[in-house]
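Sample A.
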Amino acid sequence: MTTKEKRILFSDVLSCPEAARAWGISEDKVKRYASEGKFSPSEARKTSKYWIITKQGMSRVFGPQGG
């Protein structure tokens, strides 16, 4: 791992439905923002047909959880 890389723990990553539910927004909105590149590559990634998103990315884009 280089000094610029950061370890991401599984506990810091959410599926798109989990992220939407935790932030009280629609899953479609999370998917749309991810598809439009509103998250950085280290915050959201599509694995085959599923988006996975970090909690940090959700907070940066949508504000504090539950906020």
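Sample B, a different protein:
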Amino acid sequence: MRPGDPDMTAAALSFDVSELAGRRVLPRGQGPALFVQADISTLDGVESVVRAALDKTKSLEIRS
């Protein structure tokens, strides 16, 4: 699948915001500190994720 394919559009996605209400959504032993809330469709969001990763691990490896 590539960006722009019909299955990748927001119109093709649906979700129920209450689907996980009252359920454990993180694996045991993992806390919210492992996650970064960011919109990676924007430059600011990507910079936020990279900054958080570098602050936490001091390195970052990106593979494609």
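Observation for Sample B: The mean pLDDT is 80.
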